[in-house]
């Protein structure tokens, strides 16, 4: 296997631009490249090339550029790409393959920083004698992500640990990327139909400081580890040590959901999906927090059958759990009680007082999303998610107009995004699970 250090000699190499101007140029080139290929595609259509051939070529080239730019920039660009990757199940099959390959790579892959750069960060955060705290430390990273990379090591007491080291300049890169991505949110919207890109980027920007401080992540992980300690279905590794830019936790070994998605058998996919849904819906009640970075690279199926959960940099704080209004709305939509549903939506701020939306139109928009709860077991498929995405993204349809007229109160934004992301993973897994029983047990208001 090629050593990471053979591929990238130093963090500040030309391949990974750090300056605002360099990062901006890369990001500006991405939507311009997409737009240029669209224009070129129309030209080839006019000369007789079939629509299918043109669309396939555009998808492949756009996906390739998307991965190259978002992957090498790390920071906010890669974080955005990782979130988009969860929604690839919504991309229509005739153009999905290139995006599936490119976006899935973003869930776990990124060029690493050099050993010298990592050592500088470790010395700044853990002290000049930081190596004495470890019995062994692998200088080659085992994983690289949006704002940091992970090294495997052995703590001084013999425990296997994961050491997450933040990239130098990650804060500058994150802020620069998010500013630029927000400028081009409308163009990126076309990549994933049915997903609102602009509020997604706004939410990332709002949570930026929390993601950059590993001490906050350590506090969140400690809370999850305490709540799930001894649990027979979920394992959260304990925190060993933390600093603003370095986090040391117990090492966890298992099969990432990325591999189960690509090659797992039916029973394994179903069990992974069930465990993921249980974790997602039970966390607000058990921890008063919601793990808010749902992509397959953050979940592993352990040899003992439990779900391993890592990366707690993004969490939603829910001191009172999930609002019970959400469960009641879901139940009313499931039962077709449009008038009561409309009243509750107005009360909770989803429909503004001066809005003249029709109750039946709102029910028609929301009811299909409750299909997974209509039966004892539901099979989450890409085809189902594609139907939902295309239904709400079709500008010619009533559902599109209804969706644009609804309001999403700020306190529900992250809950909505994480639930949509978790649903995307279930569809990638092609999992059949008892969703109704899980929601009935954990979602306040649903069983009332």
TrEMBL record:
Alphabetical keyword list: ATP-binding, Kinase, Nucleotide-binding, Transferase
Domain (ABC1 atypical kinase-like) spans 105-322
> Which superkingdom heads the taxonomic lineage of this protein's source?
Bacteria
Instruction: Report whether Transferase shows up as a keyword of the record.
Output: yes
Gene Ontology MF, one: kinase activity
What Pfam families does the database record attribute to this sequence? Answer: ABC1
Record has NAD as a keyword: no
Sequence similarity: Belongs to the protein kinase superfamily. ADCK protein kinase family.
Protein name, per record: ABC1 kinase family protein
């Amino acid at each position: 296997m090629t050593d990471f250090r053979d591929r990238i000699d130093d963090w500040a190499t030309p391949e990974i631009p750090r300056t605002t101007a360099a990062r901006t140029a890369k990001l500006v080139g991405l939507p311009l490249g997409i737009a240029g290929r669209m224009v070129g595609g129309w030209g080839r259509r006019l000369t007789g090339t079939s629509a299918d051939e043109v669309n396939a070529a555009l998808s492949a080239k756009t996906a390739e550029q998307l991965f190259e730019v978002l992957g090498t920039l790390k920071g906010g660009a890669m974080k955005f790409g990782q979130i988009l990757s969860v929604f690839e199940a919504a991309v229509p099959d005739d153009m999905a393959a290139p995006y599936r390959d490119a976006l899935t790579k973003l869930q776990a892959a990124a060029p690493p920083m050099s050993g010298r750069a990592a050592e500088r960060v470790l010395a700044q955060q853990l002290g000049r004698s930081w190596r004495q705290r470890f019995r062994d430390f692998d200088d080659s990273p085992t994983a690289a992500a949006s704002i940091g990379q992970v090294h495997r090591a052995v703590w001084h007491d013999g425990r296997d640990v994961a050491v997450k080291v933040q990239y130098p300049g990650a804060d500058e890169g994150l802020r620069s990327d998010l500013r630029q991505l927000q400028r081009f949110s409308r163009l990126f919207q076309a990549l994933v139909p049915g997903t609102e890109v602009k509020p997604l980027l706004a939410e990332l920007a709002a949570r930026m400081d929390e993601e950059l401080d590993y001490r906050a992540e350590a506090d969140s992980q400690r809370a999850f580890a305490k709540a799930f300690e001894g649990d027979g279905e979920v394992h959260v590794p304990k925190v060993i040590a933390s600093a603003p830019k370095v986090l040391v936790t117990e090492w966890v070994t298992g099969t990432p959901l990325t591999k189960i998605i690509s090659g797992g058998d039916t029973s394994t996919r179903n069990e992974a999906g069930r465990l993921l849904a249980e974790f997602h819906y039970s966390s607000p009640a058990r921890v008063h927090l919601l793990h808010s970075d749902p992509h397959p690279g953050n979940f592993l199926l352990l040899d003992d059958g439990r779900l391993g959960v890592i990366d707690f940099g993004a969490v939603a704080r829910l001191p009172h759990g999930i609002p019970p209004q959400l469960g009641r709305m879901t139940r009313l939509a499931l039962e077709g009680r449009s008038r009561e549903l409309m009243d509750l939506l107005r009360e909770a701020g989803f429909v503004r007082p001066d809005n003249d939306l029709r109750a039946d139109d709102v029910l028609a928009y929301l009811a299909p999303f409750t299909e997974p709860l209509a039966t004892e077991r539901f099979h989450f498929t890409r085809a189902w998610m594609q139907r939902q995405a295309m239904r709400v993204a079709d500008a010619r349809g009533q559902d599109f107009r209804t969706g644009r007229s609804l309001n999403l109160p700020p306190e529900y934004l992250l809950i909505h995004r994480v639930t949509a992301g978790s649903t995307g993973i279930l569809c990638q897994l092609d999992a059949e699970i008892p969703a109704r029983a899980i929601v009935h047990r954990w979602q306040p208001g649903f069983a009332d």
